[in-house]
Design a protein that fits this description.
Shape: globular
Mean pLDDT: 85
Structural class: alpha+beta
Order of helices and strands: HHHEEEEEEEEE
CATH architecture: Beta Complex
Length: 156
C-alpha cells in the first residue's frame, strides 16, 4: 500500500495498514444483531443514536423529566444501566446521571465533533448511549449525559 492509497483509505472510512500493523479486532458483545435486526428492534431514531453514534436534539426526551424511582435500561438489550437515585438535572437537555450501575457501561475515546470526549456504551450490546464528562456533582464529579432514546425506564 502506498501513501496515496493509505490516505484515500482513511478518508473514505477504510482502515489503512501502517508499518505492517493490522487493525484491532472488533469487540464481540453478548447481545448481537444484524443491522436490519437492530433497525427493526430500535426504530430509525434510536438506531441512528445507538448503532451510528448519533444524538437526539436536547430537551426532546420524555426521560428528561422522568423523576419516579426506578431503573434506566439499555433500549437495545434492557441491561440495567442507571438507578434513578443517581439522576440529576444538569440543564444540558439530556438525561444525566452521576454514576452508572456496576458492570453496566464501558467507555471509549471519541474524537468526533472536532473535540476529545469519552463515549459511553452498553457493555452487553455495545449500543452508544451518550458521553461522560467530569463536570458533574459530588460524590463522583461525573456527568453521564445520555440520549433518552438509548434508554428505557422501568419503575420500581
Amino acid at each position: 500500500m502506498n501513501r496515496r492509497t493509505a490516505i484515500q483509505s482513511l478518508l473514505i472510512g477504510g482502515t489503512a495498514l501502517v508499518a505492517g500493523c493490522s487493525p484491532a479486532p472488533a469487540k464481540t458483545f453478548e447481545v448481537t444483531h444484524t443491522p436490519d435486526e437492530w433497525k427493526k428492534l430500535l426504530g430509525p431514531a434510536a438506531y441512528h443514536i445507538m448503532r451510528e453514534q448519533g444524538t437526539e436534539y436536547p430537551f426532546t426526551s420524555p426521560l428528561l423529566n422522568e423523576h419516579r424511582k426506578g431503573t434506566f435500561l439499555c433500549a437495545g438489550c434492557e441491561l440495567a444501566l442507571f438507578s434513578s437515585d443517581t439522576k440529576f438535572e444538569s440543564g444540558t437537555g439530556w438525561p444525566s446521571f452521576w454514576q452508572a450501575l456496576p458492570n453496566a457501561v464501558e467507555t471509549a475515546s471519541d474524537s468526533s465533533m472536532m473535540m476529545e470526549r469519552t463515549e459511553v456504551h452498553c457493555r452487553r450490546c455495545g449500543g452508544h448511549l451518550g458521553h461522560v464528562f467530569d463536570d458533574g456533582p459530588k460524590p463522583t464529579g461525573l456527568r453521564y449525559c445520555m440520549d433518552g432514546l438509548a434508554l428505557k425506564f422501568k419503575p420500581a
